Amino acid sequence: MINNNECIKKICRNLNCAKAKDIIRKNFRKNRFVVQNLPNKKERKENKANSRKIGKKFSKKEKLLLFLSGAAIGFLNGFFGGGGGMICVPILQKVLSLDAKQSHATAIAVIFPLSLISAFIYVINGYIQSFPLLTIGLGVVAGGLLGAFALKFLPPKAIRLIFAIIMLAGGIKLIL
């Protein structure tokens, strides 16, 4: 006879799912567990593909490509004061094969410290005014919270479409 923990481990291995705690709920009264919300075949395939990506070893060429991409992202973010995420997201999707949610979240995590460093340099050089910083900053914080919340619920196709529309609109605006 096997205990609950062994059953949970077996199911997690079979499903290859990183969110085992979300999928499995223990039912202590009956001394057994109840499996809820099992992923469908497509989700299991995606989970398996994602788990392979996490442990993937990168070649020297891929590492160099990622480093050079990071340098380009850093340059653009420092030079324009932002916008590095517009380059970072496609790179994460193409080079690392991350899905839309993972690449957008990772891009934010990459850009945040970079933006802090760029902002520090702008402050030292006297380029930042306090009133626009405070007023726009409050809006950015509110919009960032709303965007992060929406990212959790939007399907990846909708995220890609919204991102493409914003990039297209930005490109058209720059041309005109």
Q: What structural keywords apply?
A:
176 residues, mainly alpha, 2 domains, two-stranded antiparallel sheet
Secondary structure: elements and pairs:
Layout lengths: L3 H12 L4 H4 E4 L4 E4 L5 H14 L5 H21 L3 H12 L4 H25 L5 H24 L2 H20 L1
Antiparallel strand pairs: 1-2
Helix pairs in contact: 4-5, 5-6
Describe what this molecule looks like in 3D.
With 176 residues, this protein is mainly alpha-helical. It folds into two domains: 4-51, no CATH class; 58-175, no CATH class. Helices cover 75% and strands 5% of the residues. The chain has a two-stranded antiparallel ribbon with strand order 1-2. α4 (60-80) runs antiparallel to α5 (84-95) and α5 (84-95) runs antiparallel to α6 (100-124). Residues 25-31 have low confidence and may be disordered.
What's this model, at a glance?
This protein has 176 residues and is mainly alpha-helical.
How many DSSP H or I helices? 8
Radius of gyration: 21 Å
The structure class reads mainly alpha
| Residue-averaged pLDDT | 75
* Spatial sequence of strands, sheet with the most strands: 1-2
Q: How would the global form be characterised?
A: globular
Distance N terminus to C terminus? 72 Å
For the secondary structure, the number of strands is 2
Helical coverage, percent range: over 70%
How many discrete structural domains? 2
- Uncertain ranges: 25-31
**Largest sheet: number of strands, sense, barrel closure:** 2 strands, antiparallel
Order of helices and strands: HHEEHHHHHH
Q: Could you tell me the strand content as a percent range?
A: under 5%
